[in-house]
Amino acid sequence: AAVPPGVLALLLVALLWAPWRALHGAPLAELSGDQDFQLFLHNNLEFTRKIKGDVAALQRVVCDTFQLCKEEELQLVREHLGVAQAPLEQCHRRTFQAEACFSQIRDGLRTYHDSLATVLELLPGHASLVETLQLDAANLSSNIQQQMEDLGLATVTYPAEDWGPLPTFSSSFHHQVGSFFILENFQRFLETAYRALRHLAHF
């Protein structure tokens, strides 16, 4: 029998939580060859890939339902909507800092968890998929926070006002385009986070 999505999400979270418990306080560089650390990274990469797949599924729904499929056709509308990308500049290879990168991934996941409420309002018929995505984003964010504490990594807090409050939309069309860009931004955010985690796996 197929495993219900919610149960699968909880199983994934359980896998993610387990490997870090013995790593209290160890410097990150010393963990690069540690099997538990590598297992965490592997599981985290798999989880991020799963979330990316769910975002892509919602992007296809928006494309099929509203004929909003190409970013370049919507740029002029985007400028008026205030849909910002959560920052991940600390996760780029040239400026990479593990503590800051993990903190930005954690905070960004929380931001997109909240932003997905806009998508949920737009696509009530796909509530199960949106809510599963919100659950996964929240669980991955909480997991990263817990593991940073377990590792003794410094926690960096980036104020939410850095990328602004959730936008409000003046029309149904703006709501549709705003949701398109929330998903587009989330997908790019996840791709950057995925590359950062993969970089750590080969640190």
Automatic annotation (TrEMBL):
Cellular component GO terms held in the UniProt record: extracellular region
Pfam families registered for this protein in UniProt: GCSF
Compartments it resides in: Secreted
Keywords: Disulfide bond, Glycoprotein, Growth factor, Secreted, Signal
GO biological process: immune response; positive regulation of myeloid cell differentiation
Family statement drawn from the similarity comment of this UniProt entry: Belongs to the IL-6 superfamily.
Protein name as catalogued: MGF factor
Source species of the chain: Bucorvus abyssinicus
